[in-house]
């Protein structure tokens, strides 16, 4: 999967500007940015739903503007623009796709149990909560183990336990060679899950690389934060730590940055409130 100097505008407003990245097979790529930064536009170009104004976009070895119906069978997409049959149950919706792709009902049941939908499988899609519909769409996207998987905020609104189940599912798909393009607001999720991330701001990539490499680039490894049992804390050079070991210390931490703090330092804006 590759993007090279891709630009897209809508009515004169630039949505993405000279964006480039390449994603090797079997990796999880995190595309991080606030609402309106260009994440969905990028997915729509990669999946052939939009044509870029300039630059190159390729998946499955083809220009995304030339994808065929057969190519789309190798792609899984989860986003809030993907519909379901609202008068059918969870199970009926997914059984349709399972039969279409020749997937066993045993594997379908496995996914329903993994994402805690099995006991509710007879509920109509019309009556589902946002979180339940989110999980239905995720199963629909991964059911046929596609070569490429595009996930738009897959764990949004999920509790931590379910989010971890989703992470385990995505890692298992990665181990099968599935390439995953993931957008998320959750910086911690990206840090733990992704092989590489790109920070997107106002249509431009402002930082890119393996999550820990990006974190290390902006971390101050020469200082530590010492927290004392009386509630006070100080920041000192690492070599001075020994001077405080006789005191009532609660914890000692290195000055490691987070993707969240890095985004704020680069843009001056809160990631969650663009």
From TrEMBL:
Q: Which domain of life is it from?
A: Bacteria
Q: Identify the residues that the record assigns to the ABC transporter domain, covering every copy.
A: 1-227
Recite the UniProt keywords alphabetically.
ATP-binding, Nucleotide-binding, Transport
Which Pfam families does the record match to this protein? ABC_tran
- SMART domains (UniProt xref): AAA
Task: Give one GO term, molecular function aspect.
Answer: ATP hydrolysis activity
Which CDD domains has this protein been placed in?
Answer: ABC_DR_subfamily_A
Name of the protein this chain belongs to: Bacitracin ABC transporter ATP-binding protein
Question: Source taxonomy lineage?
Answer: Bacteria, Bacillati, Bacillota, Bacilli, Lactobacillales
